[in-house]
Amino acid sequence: MVNRKELNPESSPRAAFGARVRRLREKRGWSQEVLAEHVGCSSQHISATETARKPPTLPFSRKLDIIFGTANTGESFESEWREIRHGSLLEGFPEYVGYEGRAVEIRIYNTGVIPGLLQTPEYARVLAHSAVRRGAITPEQADERVSFLAERQSALVRPRLPMILVVLDESCIRRSIGDDAAMDTQLARLIEFAGRPNTMLQVVPFDMSHRPFDLPITVLTMADRSLMSYAESAQRGHLERESTAVLPMLTAYHQLQAESPSQAASVAMISQLRKGNP
């Protein structure tokens, strides 16, 4: 075959995905044009996926599962796609997100940056591209992080809305991420978030000396009232599923809320910041 590129499935998860597409396609005696016709895309798209020049998408993976009969199996393309997506995320985080999407109450304390559930796409892109400049992730992984965040946020829009309580250190709203327009949009998102019926937002000022947490923490309450907590180090995320270990954190979170300014005062602080007032 002219210009046939040899594949190395071991070079990356994306390369393994592409090599598998080629293997199953050729097993059926199909050209890239024939597979493209079945999928509903161009042959160039098939070629780019097989040679790992283009990352697979969830709809594309699901169509492959239907075509090759791998849907709902341990070898589905959809499950392989999810492994690729999670590869750009901190170890332990994908497991946490699965529980987050089913929690009835989510309590978040964050410092330095706006937590993911409240981030605008522009804000999230700046953070992801900063990680690219540091060499921590690739540009493709940065795009995957941003799109994964959108999916994570949409998972919380369900018939029974979870109660989301957020306490932010003042550094979250003072630290400028992106240009002025992007930051203003992000602050507007916080105000909009505070106005929802299932949310509460508080900002802890710099001068509040007593704080029960030194690092960001999330506490989940599940439908059966069991508790989980999630915290991150530089290397991985840690999900604590033992309720007795999480209960002291929940108590400390209640204390933090009680000592923090009210939501009305916090929204007023954010509004003043948007106006350019210190």
Structure notes:
- By secondary structure, the protein is of the alpha/beta class.
- It folds into 2 domains: 9-86, Orthogonal Bundle (434 Repressor (Amino-terminal Domain)); 93-118 and 159-274, Endonuclease Chain A (Endonuclease, Chain A, 2-Layer Sandwich).
- It has 12 helices and 6 strands.
- The chain has helices at residues 13-27, 32-39, 43-50, 58-68, 77-86, 93-100, 121-133, 139-154, 170-174, 180-194, 243-259, 263-274, and strands spanning 105-110, 163-169, 199-204, 217-221, 227-232, 237-240.
- It has a 6-stranded mixed beta sheet, sandwiched between helices.
- A hairpin with a 4-residue loop joins strand 5 (227-232) and strand 6.
- Helix 2 (32-39) crosses helix 3, helix 4 packs antiparallel against helix 5 and helix 7 packs antiparallel against helix 8.
- The chain is elongated, with a radius of gyration of 22 Å.
- The N and C termini lie far apart (67 Å).
Keywords:
278 residues; alpha/beta; 434 Repressor (Amino-terminal Domain); Endonuclease, Chain A; 2 domains; six-stranded mixed beta sheet; 12 helices; 6 strands; 12% strand
How far the N terminus sits from the C terminus, by CA atoms, comes to: 67 Å
CATH topology of the largest domain: Endonuclease, Chain A
- The structural class is alpha/beta
Low-confidence stretches: none
CATH class of the largest domain: Alpha Beta
Share in β-strands: 5-15%
Can you say what the CATH homologous superfamily of the largest domain is?
Answer: Endonuclease Chain A
Shape estimate:
elongated
Helix content: 40-55%
The CATH architecture of the largest domain comes to 2-Layer Sandwich
* Order of strands in the sheet with most strands: 3-2-1-4-5-6
H/E element string? HHHHHHEHHEHHEEEEHH
Sheet with most strands: 6 strands, mixed
Radius of gyration: 22 Å
Count of individual domains: 2
